[in-house]
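Protocol step 4 of 6: structure prediction from sequence.
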Amino acid sequence: MSSLGVLRKDVIKKGLCTGCGTCIGVCPANVLEFDEEFEEPRIRGKCLPDCNICYDVCPGKDIPLPALERRKFGRERSSNEEMAGISQSYRKGYALDPQIRQAGTSGGVVTALLVYALEHGIIDSAVVTAMSAERPWKVEPRIATTRSEIIQSARSKYAVFPHNKILREIIEGGFSKVGFVGLPCHIHAIEKMRLKNILPGLTDKIRLVLGLVCGYNCSFKATEYMVREWAGIDSIDKVTWLEYRGGEEKSQGVVKTKDETVLVAKMNWYYGCMFPFARDRCMMCYDFGSELADVSVGDRSPRGERDIGWSHLAARSDEGTKLIEDAEREGYIKTLPVEQEDFLSNFGFGVKKRGGQSKFTNRRRFGWPTPDFGRI
C-alpha cells in the first residue's frame, strides 16, 4: 500500500484529517493536491516506493505533545501549565503603528511582530494567510516578502484550507529565514518534522513561529452559507471582497459584490452561524493556545467579552521573548504584563480543553477514532 493509502486508511477515512495540507507541501513526488469538495488530500499521480513522509509528518492521528515540548522547550509542562501550555510570560498589547493596528483583527500584534522581524533581518519572508486575488472569497496561504504584503494578510479567516502546502514554496523559493504564522495543527506538523528530523533543510529555514489561538475551523460551506443566507447573494462568484472580521468592531462579516454593493452582517458571523460547520477533527483538538509556537497571539477576551484593540500574547520560547522585547523597544508594539489567569480568561480555553476531554472520553467509550496527544 502506498504512503497515501496508509494515510487514507488511518487518518482520512477515520475523520482525523485536519485539512492542514502538510502532506501536499512535503510530498517529494509532488503528486498530492487538495480536494476542495471534501477538504482533504487526494492523489493525482503515483507515490514514490517506500516513502512515508506524508504519514510521518501528519498531525491528524498523533501529536506527541510531551516529546514535542521536550524538543522545543527542554521540558514538559508543569501542572500549573496544563491549560495554557509552557510560557515564559503573558502579556496584553497592541501595534503602535495606527495602520497596522487598524488592519489587525484585535491589536495587530502578529502583523507588527512580522513587520519588525522583516525590517530587522530576522526573517526574509513570512508564511501568512490571505484572500485569493483570483477567487476573493477563498482563503489561501502566501509567502509575504514586503511590509505591505504582510499588512494585506492581516485579520482572521475562518475556513479550512491547506495552509502547509506552501511548504513546497519554501523549499523551492530560495528563502532562508522564514517567519511562519499558523494554527495549532499547522505548527504540530512542523514540530513533528523537527522531532523526527524529516526534511531538516526545510525546517531549518523556519526561524520564527507565531501561533494563533484557535477554537475550531470551519468548512468552506460555512462561508457559502453566510454569503447566501446572511448577505442574500445567490452566487458566491459575485463576491469581489470578503472579510470574516470586519465592521466597526471587527466582529462582523463584510461582503462586497461586483455591482459595488457592500453588505455587513448584523452580528458576528463566526459565533452566529459557523459553529455548525466546524470540522469534526477540530472538536477533538487539545491545543487552543498554539502551545508549540514561539509566541502565541489571540484576541484579548476577558470573561468572554472581547477587549477591542488589544491582543493577548504568550511568550513561550527564548526566541519569542526576545522578539517581543526587541519589537517593543524599537517602538513596534506596546505591551503590559498580565497573569496566566488573564490569558486564560478567554472562554475558548475551557471549551476546548475541558470540552475536548469530554469528547475524547465519549468517543473512546464508543470505540470511535480519536487523535493521540500523548497526554489525555
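Step 5 (inspection) to follow. The domain at 3-60 is CATH 3.30.70.20 (Alpha-Beta Plaits).
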